[in-house]
Each structure stands twice: as structure tokens, then as C-alpha cells.
Amino acid sequence: MSNKVTEKSLVWLYYFKTVMGQNIIHVYFVPGLAAGKEIFKNIHLPENCFQTHILEWLIPEKKESISSYAQRMAMHVLHEDAVLVGVSFGGVVVQEMAHFLTLKKLIIISSVKSRKEFPKRMKIARITKLYKLVPTRIMLSSDDLTKFAIGPKSRKRLQLYQAFLHVRSASYLNWAIENMVCWQPKKPAGEVIHIHGDADIIFPVKNIKDCEVILGGTHIMLLNKGSKISKKLIEVISL
Questions:
Q1: What is the DSSP annotation of 15-43?
Q2: Which of 62, 68, 98, 67 is nearest to 80 (CA)?
């Protein structure tokens, strides 16, 4: 008999741990940069074990620090010992939010845990401040973001992602890009479970330490590998 843990066995394990004990696990999701709740449409967790909540992006205050912003976001997590999951830039924000919460698990997807995991181009952008040249207002006013792509693969991914863009605020986008590129965690967020795709070109897996790898997963794998990520989430929450 195989010792491999199956999704079905994990669901049953959680059924007896939670439902029989009348203790549903609350899972809060923070989407990627400018994305809305639709980005999680392919993520499915058993409703008899989990209750999911998707946090929407707040508009940052003028010159607001990421710590202050994270504290405001954390106020929307209404359950103690919840699971907090962040995607891409949302992964950075949840690590900052964790300083203000008592969590059961902290999970990031397609994100980074420190500057050491940034790609070289992002490090250069921080030093040279090239990120300030991103034409956010033009991008947000455009009905077709693919014109800003750098090649056919980027164009295809942008077409897929564009449908899920929710926040069309230049102040938010400028703030988010700067805080992503310049992020420097002041202290560790504690234990972070990291799920990452081996085909992520935004944050190449070669720079990522200690992660659960999704084979064939790109930076937007949430959209096309939802079943695999759902299974992985059940697995890591159950451990």
C-alpha cells in the first residue's frame, strides 16, 4: 500500500479534526498586484472543512509605509488562528500582516520571502529607481495591456491576467510597485510556507529557497493550475 498522502485522505483527516470538533478553518486570501477575488476562481477547498475569505486591496494613504498598510489590511482578518495566503505582491503584504495577527499558517504563492530571492533585474530597478518610470496611468487607461508586453509569451499571459485586474488606481499601482521592488522586511514573519512554480519568470525558482514546487507552474499558475494548488494548500494546512 502506498504511503503517499492523497487529497481524499487529507479531506477526511480535516473532517474529523474540524467538523466533528465544530471548528472550521478560516482561510484568508490576498490576491496579486491589482487583482481582485476572481483570481481565485479555480481554487477550491472543501466547504465542510474550510471557510474562505478574500480580502480586497485598500487604496494606500499618501506616503503610507507597507507596515501601516498591512496593519490596516490585518484589521479585516476577523478570526484568530486563521490561515493567511498571499499571491505575488500579496505574498509580501501577508508577511507584513502576520506581525499584527495570530495565525495558524502563513502561506505565500508565486512570491518572495526576502530580497535575496529577488531577480537581478528587480535589484537593479531598486538601485536605479527605474520602477518610477513605469507608465502606470497610461497602462491603467488602456483597454489592452498587451501593448506593454515584451514578446509573445508575455502578451499571452497579460491577456489572461488582464481579465482579473480589479484595482485601476494609479496611486495604488505606483505605491504597490515601489513597495514590491523596495521591500525590505524589518523582521522575519515567522514560519512561511512557500508554494512556487518552476516556470515562474517573474521570480525564477532558482532564487527561491525552501519552497513547495508546482511543476510547470508560471507566475499566474493560480489561473491554470488551480486544482494542483488547491490540493497543495489542503496538504500544507493539514500538516
A1: IIIIITTT-PEEEEEE-STTB-GGGGTT-
A2: 98
The answer to whether the beta carbons of residues 230 and 222 sit under 8 Å apart is: no
The per-residue pLDDT for 136 is 61
Q: Which three cell numbers stand for residue 221?
A: 499558475
What is the mean pLDDT of the segment spanning 95-120?
96
At 143 the pLDDT is: 53
Contact by Cβ (8 Å): 67, 99 = yes
- CATH number at 7-113+185-238: 3.40.50.1820
Q: Where are the domains of the chain?
A: 7-113+185-238
Q: Which of 220, 204, 109, 227 is CA-nearest to residue 164?
A: 220
Helices marked H in the chain: 7-14, 66-74, 89-97, 120-128, 136-141, 152-162, 170-181, 221-224, 226-238
Tabulate helix, strand, coil % of the chain (nearest 5).
45, 15, 40
- Side chain identity at residue 140, one-letter code: L
d(CA 200, CA 205): 7
C-alpha 121/C-alpha 224 separation (Å) is 26
pTM: 0.83
CB 115 within 8 A of CB 183: yes
The C-alpha atoms of residue 203 and residue 122 are separated, in whole angstroms, by 9
Q: How many Å apart are CA 15 and CA 42, to the nearest integer?
A: 22
Sign of torsion over alpha carbons 200, 203, 205, 210 = negative
CA atoms within 13 A on the CB side of 164: 20
